[in-house]
Structure formats: C-alpha cells, structure tokens
C-alpha cells in the first residue's frame, strides 16, 4: 500500500490508532442545520471571554467564542452576558 512496501498493521500501529481515537473522539461532531426545525442559541460570558453555541435538537451546529477587549473586561457580568448574546446573534444571523 506504500511505495516502500506493504503496510504493516501490528500491535504498535494498533496502539497508536487507539491513542489517536481517544484524542479525537471527545470532540462533538457538528450537525447539519435543518431549516425546518427551530434553532437554539446558548451564550455565556466570563471575565476573560464570551462564547456561544448554535444547536438544533440538542446537537451542536456551530461554536463561537472570543476574548474580551480591555474595555469590555470592565463591564458588569450582565453587560458581558448581553455582549455574548449580541455577538452570537451577529455570528449566527444566517441561521436565525
């Protein structure tokens, strides 16, 4: 299967493959949006950043996050949460 010769599937290759699966498996697969179903946006804010998740039927479609600018980090938590909502609506507007 390679130019140098046959591909050898041995214990080392199997162990490496299992390690690779463990590293990549925890990440969720993104769903394809279905515009006949409602979308859900989940937002959050911390002292360092804001984030949002676009979902349908509990399955993630898109993730979005960014670090807060210096001025934004001085906002109250309520203002940071509103900033996260506004950011999410701007990023996901084509779906909503």
UniProtKB/TrEMBL annotation:
User: Domain named Reverse transcriptase/retrotransposon-derived protein RNase H-like: which ranges?
Assistant: 9-96
- What InterPro entries has UniProt attached to this entry? DNA/RNA_pol_sf (IPR043502), Retrovirus_Pol_polyprotein (IPR050951), RT_RNaseH_2 (IPR041577)
Would you tell me the protein name for this molecule?
Answer: Reverse transcriptase/retrotransposon-derived protein RNase H-like domain-containing protein
Q: Which GO terms describe its molecular function?
A: catalytic activity
Q: Kindly indicate whether the keyword Ligase belongs to this entry.
A: no
Keywords, A to Z? Multifunctional enzyme
SUPFAM superfamilies to which the protein is assigned, alphabetical: DNA/RNA polymerases
């Amino acid at each position: 299967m390679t130019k140098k010769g046959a591909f050898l599937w041995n214990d080392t290759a199997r162990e490496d493959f299992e390690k690779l699966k463990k590293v990549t498996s925890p990440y969720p697969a993104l769903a394809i949006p279905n515009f006949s179903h409602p979308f859900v946006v989940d937002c959050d804010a911390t002292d360092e950043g804001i984030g949002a998740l676009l979902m349908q039927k509990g399955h993630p479609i898109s993730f979005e996050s960014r670090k807060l600018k210096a001025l934004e980090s001085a906002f109250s938590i309520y203002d940071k949460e509103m900033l996260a909502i506004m950011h999410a609506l701007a990023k996901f507007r084509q779906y909503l």
